[in-house]
Amino acid sequence: MTNSADVMQGTLDLLILKALALEPMHGWGISDRIRQMSRDVFRIGQGSLYPALHRFDSRGWVTSYWRTTENNRIARYYQLTAAGRHALAGEIERWRSYTTAVDHVIDAEQPPSIS
Q1: Mean pLDDT value across the chain
Q2: Which of 7, 11, 27, 113 has its Cα between 20 and 30 A from that of 92?
Q3: Which DSSP helix (H) or strand (E) runs through 30?
Q4: 27 three-class SS
Q5: CB 33 within 8 Å of CB 27
Q6: How far, in Å, are 10, 28, 44, 59 from residue 97 at the CA level?
């Protein structure tokens, strides 16, 4: 049995950008790739995915085009731009800084009591 987890606020962009850094994909492919990369923990729904992709498009982080899928259907594919790769690098840097800070808190010892 796998446990699905909610994506923490602020991590959705990182997950989608990382998936697109691997190759251009359509929406379902992005969602499925994130599920695979997270080992079935993260499941990104269309209600979260497509607004993020539209936001990325308006920021110039992705371009999109129509193409036939491997299942012979027409789908919009999204491809990371140079600006998108730069945004991904920033998201990774912020995430690593955040997780390092959380690790410091988790590993902190009880301070001596003041008498």
Answers
A1: 91
A2: 27
A3: helix 27-37
A4: helix
A5: no
A6: 13, 30, 24, 24
- For the stretch 76-92, pLDDT in tens is 999 999 999 999 999 99
Q: What is the pLDDT of residue 101?
A: 94
pTM of the predicted structure, to 2 decimals: 0.85
Looking up tokens 């993260």, which residue turns up?
42
Q: What's 48-95 look like in SS3?
A: HHHHHHHHHHHHCCEEEEEEECCCCCEEEEEEECHHHHHHHHHHHHHH
Q: State how far the Cα of 35 lies from the Cα of 41, in Å rounded to an integer.
A: 6
What CA–CA distance (Å, rounded) separates 60 from 104?
Answer: 35
Q: Rounded to an integer, what distance in angstroms lies between the CA atom of residue 30 and that of residue 104?
A: 33
